[in-house]
Structure prediction request, 724 residues.
Amino acid sequence: MKRVKIAEILSQPEIGKEILVKGWVRAFRSNRFIQINDGSTINTLQAVVDFEKFDEAILKKITTAAAVGLKGILIESQGTGQAVELQVSEIEIIGEANPDDVQRTVMQPKKHSLEFLREQAHLRFRTNTFGAVFRIRHAVAFSIHNYFNQRGFFYLHTPIITGSDAEGAGEMFRVTNLDPKNPPLNEDGTVNFKEDFFGKAVNLTVSGQLEAELAALALGQVYTFGPTFRAENSNTSRHLAEFWMIEPEVAFNDLLDNMNLTEDFLKYICNYVMENCADDLKFLNDREVQEQSQKPQNERNELSLIERLQFVVNNEFKRLTYTEAIEVLKNSNHYKKKKFQYDISWGIDLQSEHERYLVENE
Amino acid sequence: MKRVKIAEILSQPEIGKEILVKGWVRAFRSNRFIQINDGSTINTLQAVVDFEKFDEAILKKITTAAAVGLKGILIESQGTGQAVELQVSEIEIIGEANPDDVQRTVMQPKKHSLEFLREQAHLRFRTNTFGAVFRIRHAVAFSIHNYFNQRGFFYLHTPIITGSDAEGAGEMFRVTNLDPKNPPLNEDGTVNFKEDFFGKAVNLTVSGQLEAELAALALGQVYTFGPTFRAENSNTSRHLAEFWMIEPEVAFNDLLDNMNLTEDFLKYICNYVMENCADDLKFLNDREVQEQSQKPQNERNELSLIERLQFVVNNEFKRLTYTEAIEVLKNSNHYKKKKFQYDISWGIDLQSEHERYLVENE
Prediction:
């Protein structure tokens, strides 16, 4: 019998049908109610066991985090809190979970801090928070490909290992196969990279822009979506050592075309996620609202997560010239109170604090 | 006026409409017929210029590889070889191309060897061959994402820089920020990788399988599609230093499920490409047929490129056990004539020569 995914069962329940579900136990109450999740959705299916019909040795193995297969008839739920439930006729224990071990992990069914989740990277996919994050990340990634494909862009896999420093965007990681302690040397005492794998010194890419521009000048419209790297040891939210970056390049576009593309692109992604990840977004939204409620009033976000996405979708992006941006910044109270770290005058490169002020206040 | 892409014009021509096309000149014949391509398709649009209406200085700049904008009315073609053509009313020279320079490049409109194309990596996107290859590669990549998304798989970006050797799959590239000549040393004289960027020795990933398996045990169905690396200095068609790999991982799947997934997946991709890249496939098919025709009869491929794709789609994949595979190999004339490099007995790991024999002959 082919297993059915819980996302399908809950979105299109067929009452009276015999089905097979496989997943992981989230909770087992009163020797009777199993909450089972299979990762296809944040929601669990309630499965009801008549404990008199099953061997106690089997029931004892139905513990949090255990992998089980449950066969039974889908019925309208007798209790509240769920529309349907599974009346279990067969139980298969696929993988046991030691309750003492589970106690020490993020699989214990309660709220954990993000720091604790970070320490158990191998288990955190099992939590509601990371499940939601990774399902949403998938939807974002797919919507990006879908957006560009629908508009005739071609996806380009630009080189990861490169001999060029695309845009001087930052410190680079070196990629090498030379002996780390005794590298071959030239006569002048410098390292002889001709002996390295590619016959020269190479790095991890900081951008696929160079190759994307070449491709755009032939294919018309291309985009990259792949990993890029920065070796700066800075703990800012803007720069990670490794992250996936999207770079569209379009031949014959002018600045207005590029601004239109950016705005349309971002709105499309936000819309796609709101339409396709409602349950996961609601969970993260509620988690944030609850966290915010513990903060002093003046430190709370004005808008919730979902409200912020709606704000992006429902408003035209404000557009202003560089000169106007400098004007706005110089006339701001923030500037007058000397709250910017970097000074402002026409001609400077805007710093992230400046960009952030413009986005948040204009 | 917004430019229209040639792919759209040719697939849904609106006779009598004024349109703007931007692209690159492939040829300019008789001071009258411009073949223009914009990368959206392998096909060119014929644009007809009444040379008496334009300044000769402008016409002189319409040379192979020049970037131009052409405005005009789309009409039914007077000549043969194309259904529609553009009656040009305005010409904009966007970027000139020096004919002497173009002579030395792959942009010269004739057939070039793949080796010559390789030497001009920055220009090869402009050729029919690489245009076709990259448009098809896009279609393959998109169909992969589409296939998995439709079936409820979640796309996972697994780490590129890693401290683990996922499957002992091969030699790894080291990623480092240490001084290449004078790395910091421990007291025992070994390199002190605690001083390196991540506080330990790290490499480029050979596989995202480890993380994908963890994710599958929580999200149910996941796939990776990202760059992986091998530092072996072997010039085989199976191992590149850098390549994009797809790894699906599914919880609760058995071997039969995995075989079904593989077959369905490959057929879906082949079908998608045949449906969406007919013109590009035909070009590559014809190129191959022409090359094959120059070979002795007994060295030619049995099937053409398109026939091979159709063969994959229209046949059930043969499935056999390991034991059966060993039997087939041992009973083959290839084996009896000692043509395999590696000997065959039950228990060995199959080598690529063995896998290849099975695929090509069974």
The radius of gyration of chain B is 27 Å. The longest strand of chain B covers residues 18-29. Chain B has a mean pLDDT of 93.
